[in-house]
Design goal:
alpha/beta, TIM Barrel, 2 domains, six-stranded parallel sheet, four-stranded mixed sheet, 19 strands, about 35% helix, globular
Length: about 425
């Protein structure tokens, strides 16, 4: 029934788009989507109200902290986990034979990025009716893939999408957003005081985190903010109680570390000494194994000529040299004792719903232990988001974000592709395991 109503909703959306043409304003489009989804999913939303009490039976539960519970039942009340209790009943969901665990957390996505009606990458400054529809679809695909919380690192679409999901109007993962990134442009980025004003503006706009572009692309990678500018950005964010995610390569990594930033993204070119310093200072590190680069190469006809990408197909050729650099930083990072490596897929157009491929690559290419890979997207991911008291583990008092896989990821990491059950906040959004 759920799929039928969703298909009907998508059909109505397509009909509106065909009959009415392009809406004059993007927000009007999003409002129309929310209204249509609200009407089309009314039956499932009525039945999807958080039940007073739910019991899940499982014979293998990964607790999100590195532990394994066996032959137990998880009791949920009011959308939160009460406790594992082997004798609880009656059972609402029998997930025995599957691997049950906390929902995953992706610390770095671009959930509103998609390919537009012309097939081309639609990202910065391309808000349209089509991108609004796609953003809703991306959120749904990501949730169904087992990701119950994601951090989207800056887009005008993020805020309305976040609020629609919070209010239960659209289905999707719990969404945190940077609203608007601070893009390093040297002196043009502003004086330290102007940067502090920018950070305060993001806080006022509702940002959950501050995204900072402290270096250029992977190949160039030059530092694009001075030490004083970085100090101002991360210092002001810290003062306001906001976390900072810093896009950084090479010399921008130690600069971000010196500035007191809280999480480093990518990190290609960072030395072993810098990685050790990240561990010593408790800074979170989010490298990727190259999946986003392969996605660019596989879809280069769609990215070519769009903002931030080569103007010709030939311009993508040097990109084929980059995956080994990504593999290198992941492997070296895993050799650093105490380094807090969180999970971030950098999912963008062409990747939504396939975020879990990063698990497979970290294990197969980086040599990461399967349990450590999963924990990086569970309790460690929650810690990085400062949400350990809310999500990331099967533990009393936490949100009932629970997923189940067909298979054992500790023996076969590709089981992460086979999500068959998804619950977020006590509400079931996927149940293929019936």
């Amino acid at each position: 029934m759920q799929t039928l109503w969703q298909d009907l909703c998508y059909g109505v959306c397509r009909l509106v788009k065909q009959r009415e043409g392009v809406f004059g304003q993007f927000m009007k489009t999003l409002s129309a989507i929310l209204l249509l989804w609200s009407v089309c999913t009314l039956p499932q939303r009525i039945s999807a109200q958080t039940p007073a009490r739910t019991v899940i039976a499982a014979n293998v539960v990964l607790d999100g902290k590195g532990g394994v519970l066996r032959n137990t039942r998880i009791v949920i009340e009011g959308g939160r986990i009460v406790a594992p209790d082997p004798k609880a009943g009656p059972v609402n969901y029998d997930l025995r034979g599957l691997t049950v665990m906390p929902g995953w957390i992706d610390a770095h996505v671009h959930i509103t990025w998609s390919f537009g009606k012309d097939g081309k990458n639609a990202s910065f400054g391309t808000e349209s009716p089509e991108t609004a529809y796609a953003a809703a679809a991306n959120a749904w695909a990501t949730l169904r893939a087992g990701f119950t919380t994601v951090q989207s690192v800056g887009s005008p679409l993020d805020l309305p999408l976040r609020e629609a999901i919070r209010q239960g109007v659209l289905p999707g993962p719990r969404l945190l957003t940077a609203v608007e990134a601070l893009v390093g442009r040297g002196e043009a980025s502003g004086t330290p005081e102007e940067i502090r004003v920018f950070i305060r503006k993001q806080k006022a706009a509702g940002a959950d985190v501050i995204k900072i572009m402290a270096s250029g692309g992977i190949r160039q990678g030059e530092k694009t903010l001075s030490q004083e500018q970085l100090n101002a950005a991360c210092g002001e964010a810290n003062k306001l109680g906001l976390r900072t995610l810093v896009h950084a390569y090479r010399d921008a990594v130690p600069a971000a570390l010196q500035a007191g930033c809280t999480q480093i993204e990518h990190g290609i070119g960072a030395t072993d000494e810098v990685l050790k310093s990240l561990a010593e200072k408790g800074v979170y590190f989010d490298p990727q194994t190259g999946g986003v680069i392969l996605n660019y190469l596989e879809n280069k006809e769609r990215f070519v000529g769009t903002l931030g990408f080569p103007a010709t197909l030939e311009g993508f050729a040097p990109m084929s040299e980059l995956p080994p650099l990504a593999h290198d930083i992941v492997r070296r990072a895993l050799q650093v004792p105490g380094l807090k490596i969180v999970f971030g897929s950098d999912a963008l157009a062409g990747m939504h719903g396939h975020n879990a491929e990063e698990f497979i690559q970290r294990v197969r290419i980086g040599g990461m232990a399967p349990m450590a890979a999963l924990v990086s997207a569970q309790s460690l991911g929650a810690e990085a988001l400062r949400m350990s008291d809310q999500i990331g583990a099967i533990a009393p008092g936490l949100q009932a974000d629970i997923i189940a896989l067909d298979g054992d990821p500790l023996k076969d990491i590709t089981a992460v592709r086979r999500v068959v059950f998804v619950m977020k906040g006590g509400v079931v959004y996927r149940h293929d395991a019936r």
